[in-house]
Amino acid sequence: MKLFDKSKTFLGLAPMAGFTDYAFRKICALCGADFTVTEMISSKGLYYNNERTGSLMSICRESGVGVQIFGSEERSLNYAASYVAKEVSPDFIDINMGCPTPKIVNSGDGSALLKDLDKALCCARAVISGAGDVPVTVKLRLGWENALPELPDFVKRLEDEGIAAVFVHGRTSRQMYRPGVDYGAIKRIKERVNIPVFANGDITSPEKAKEVLSITGADGLLIGRGSLGNPFIFGQIKEYLQSGSYRTPTKEEITELAIAQLNEAVKDKGDRRASVEARSQIAHYLKGMSGAAEKRKMLSEATSSDEIINILKL
To answer: pTM of the predicted model, to two decimals?
Structure first.
């Protein structure tokens, strides 16, 4: 499958730190995601051979896959792109210009790059140079404090440098995840460039997905928090776009999928680590179920996969 082919509406799983580990990416791929993206990986961590950084690059081949790197130093970004291209051989490498969390932006990384678009462009060049034949994409927000009127022109500059596609979250960095996604701004970017543009932000249902595609004219969607506890959303959106309706999973199917994700995590990380890390992820599957609050409390204290499975089956 050729990713970013404009003849098809692609649906991707957005990178989310602490959530899009190998297990969740595999489950989303099996549920219909056309591609997934790793948790963001520090270019400096790769440059200085940090073991934890390397462990984030477990690749799920059940769908297309991208590795997202972040940083603001051209040398380490170039090295990281070259390393990922040679050692992992993903379908694409994504540059994080969108993360708004203080830990990232206080180092000048993530969405802080939008404060200096010339520097951001230099960072993109460094990644493209290091990536070789592997396509490079950019995930970005609308600006730092306010939406940048020059952002469509900046994306055009990225296209001219060789960026293969962009994923646009329709908020500024300062907005974090508050209500108010500006889909019109994504539309203006789409109208300015020829490369595929993916819309991102508050896509939590098939109906919303269709609305966002209609407003933005985007070539595809990147779905983040809307997939937590609901990997079914990828298949549902495809079904809805094709037929105008979609099936809602039963409680039993939701529980079965949560257990499948947990089992994948155990195979990848071992029972103890997987169980502790999966607690917050599995809790999302309980939304709307009877006794959800009590089950979430029990989950927060679970230390083994057997405990978590027993709680899910209550």
So the answer is: 0.94
